[in-house]
Amino acid sequence: MSSRKLATSCPILPGTVQVATHPPRTAFHHLFAFAQTMGLGRKRVEEVLGLVGLSDVADRPIREFSLGMNQRLGIATALLGDPGVLVLDEPLNGARPGGHPLSSSTR
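Above: the chain's sequence. Below: its structure in token form.
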């Protein structure tokens, strides 16, 4: 696999995910904007919100999110395109101990 193809198919998230967001925008609309650039719809946005445990706060403005919630939003953004591999560097940074939905499913 070429390095360019690997770079586009394997998102890498640093320890503290700093996803460019528009603070008044909701988590759903943030993800939906990215989804549209990939030809994806509402269903995929709803799926990744569920995967990272943000379904209940999908309609809240991002500016109200805690560090851990912002981390999960960054992970959701990376998962939108259903990558074969996702490299997480300190994915639980900012999460409550045992409270991160990925803490039991990461391998």
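The CA atoms of residues 23 and 63 lie 5 Å apart.
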